[in-house]
Amino acid sequence: MTSLTTNVGFLAGSDLNRYSSLIMQQYSGQSTGATTQTQFFEQYQIVGSDLNNVWSSIYATILNDAENIIRGAQSTNSPHYSGVAKILKAYTYQLAVDTWGSIPYSDTQKLASNVKPKYDLDETIYTDLIKLLDEGIAEVNATTSNISPGMNSTIYPGAFATSKLNWVKFANTLKLRIFLHYSEKNPTFAKTKIDELVNSSAVFMTGNADSFQMNFINAGNARNPIDQFETNRANNLVANAKLVSMMNEKADPRRQFYFTQLPANSGLYVGAVSGAPAAPANYSKIHTYLRGILTGTAYSGAAPIRMLTFAEYNFIRAEAALRFNSPGTAQTFFQAGVRASMESAGVAAADITTYLGANGVLTGSATQQLEQIINEKYIASYGVVSEPWADWRRTGYPTLVLPANAVTAFVPRSLFYPQSEIDLNPENATQKAGMNTKVFWDTRP
Prior knowledge:
Mean pLDDT: 96
Largest sheet: 2 strands, antiparallel
Radius of gyration: 21 Å
Shape: globular
Number of strands: 8
Strand order of the largest sheet: 1-5
Strand content: 5-15%
């Protein structure tokens, strides 16, 4: 369990986090000399071999751990363990589908009996993930379990009698995320499933304490992976001008937590324009929100990797209320999402009130209000793996301009399959023609 939860946190804060955050212009790749890997990624030079490690982490480590827990829990009558493992398995597959589309699913985790699994259609996998989450919820809620997770889970640690409610809230909120991804492909289905879930007895996140995140600590190899990357590859990442400019326009009080000031203590925040070469010293860098407390010139690394937050839950509900007339009021959930994000960042109550007074009212047409919701969700989702990319692919917001030196004429809609899959599973894996290949729910031109 410790391996499973820890590696889910590392997955969400490592390679896939950088790919999606660079694509979505929250980070920018920079260097002090030769072109760095992050600069290549920002130009969309992301090739199959770049995906080998993240694919291996998903299949050989995370899903393998989850399967071992599920089998062990079944043999020892410990459904609390299998329930948590199934919920984390569903989350991991959701990320993988949103990254690649069709992937191995039903044929996997069979070890030596099948080393070349077939690929399942991405839409078929999505359908099964809801069943998997339902199973997980039922097992987490089981009245008896011979053994239960506790402090050995690095996500929602502690007495299971308390933490099991967190797991159920997360699983239900993850279902909302999955249903919302159908918003363009099948809005009727999205509305029906969201309404059914909200109108049921399902429980959802009610505060930032419910956010699905992995808390890292200030110890060797246990620091937040974003901080570890920044420490080991100093100046390879800086704040992107897209995100910084959106926040500058509104004097967003989260800036002091998100980014370093330039120069220090000036109150000035500057982001790098994608594809524009310059020294990293000219730009704001990733700060305490994603790296932990700063003492002198060193960050603690004791910052969480946020994977599905209470803020996101509120923005999901706001979008569903606006677009589908689902339960609740878009305006109420919109403000709750902004507030949750700011409180998570440490913004003072007075500054939150000021910001909401100036920027907290949905106005204009339904399209304009959707843009407001997604733009604020984009800011709130700083550092959250993949979901800002999913929102852009669904809605087109926030509006992106191609990097000046992009090697493609489009923003990627999925990533190439790992070269290791092409080499070792050629009977089932065929490389994509390009990163403009869409996952099933991405129907936007």
